[in-house]
Design a protein that fits this description.
The complex is a heterodimer of chains A (173) and B (201). With 173 residues, chain A is α+β, with helices and mostly antiparallel strands. Chain A has one domain. In chain A, strands 1-2-3 form a three-stranded antiparallel beta sheet. In chain A, helix 3 packs antiparallel against helix 5. With 201 residues, chain B is of the alpha+beta class. Chain B folds into two domains: 62 residues, no CATH class; 99 residues, no CATH class. Chain B has four helices and three strands. Chain B has a three-stranded antiparallel beta sheet, covered by helices on one side. The radius of gyration of chain B is 32 Å and the shape is rod-shaped. Classes of the chains: A alpha+beta (173), B alpha+beta (201). The interface between A and B is large, with 55 and 57 residues.
Amino acid sequence: MLTRARGRPRARGQRPRARGTLTRVRGERGSVTVFTAVFAIAVIVLWALILDGGSALNAKERAMDIAGQAARAAADTLDLQVLRSSGVAVIGPGACAAAASLVKSYGQRLSNGLDRVTSTTMVSCTAPAGSDRATVLITVSARPLVPGVLSAFHESARASATPECGINQGAPC
Amino acid sequence: MQRVRAGWPLTSEAHHERRAAGAGPNAASRRPPAPRTSPPPRHRRASGTTMRSAREGGRRCERGSISVELVVLAPGLALLLLLIAAGARVVEVQGHIDGAARDAARAASLARSATQAVQAAQQAARADLGPTSLCAPRTVAVQVAGYPAVPLSIAPGAVTVTVTCEVNTSPFTALGFGLSQRFTGRAVAPLDPFMCRNVAC
């Protein structure tokens, strides 16, 4: 119906004159088509904003969780000699390796369902031996679900953790 | 030229919509403010009357064609709007279930034995995906992997929790969704290597 209405030729040789009533009636044809096209494009852009904006929020939360867990893994790597000699829990060597291994296994196990996470990288890890604070910066990259509207997004999050003694039981080291 | 042609039909469409709706007494006051061609008086008088005048003159026989086009296109437009609602629901549920998996993984990593880890993970996930979430009740399933069955030596370990639930997608069957769809969330939490496990602490 639309194509017929649109494709119907103007009367031969008649160019639209300066806004006469004839032009006006003919101009109505296909106006709904224009409306529909504009509306459809607007809706699809909105759809992309909702889907990919929501996915970006989810990816941000996920990046925050990965950073937190990686920082925990780093803070779990204690210096046993210091712990046994002085009873103080400080970060030992290899903390960032533990964090990197957790980030790697987290990235492998990510649900590959809705959000198309393309990479999970540990951008930086600061856990000097002898200190009591491990800080990890994570970037999660994902590609958009609706192609062609938004570009790929990269969400970063930073978290830090501290080793403590007896969290569950309140006991000293 | 292009701009004029694109803008003009909208004005005339609005004009016709009012008349087709039988606009009533104040129709004249809601006439478009500055029509580019002021309609002839006869035309104007016809506003508010019925389609009796549809046979007058050839150019009136198109009256209502916009309405017909809209009626034909309306289901498509409604489907597009439905698409937005479906996308919003999908994204929201995925965020919920990811959060539940995170909480469950953290709860499982704090447990003292494998059985307690499963219980803690289930409790945490079900508390998150309660009646206010879009997950259908009693479809939340929790799976815990990686919790050691024997006490850990000093080696980094991590527990992985997978949470699934069924979400009612029956409003979106027109878009190709089934009656319900399964969503999956997964999270990993490190295990404290210095916590005593599987023994009386």
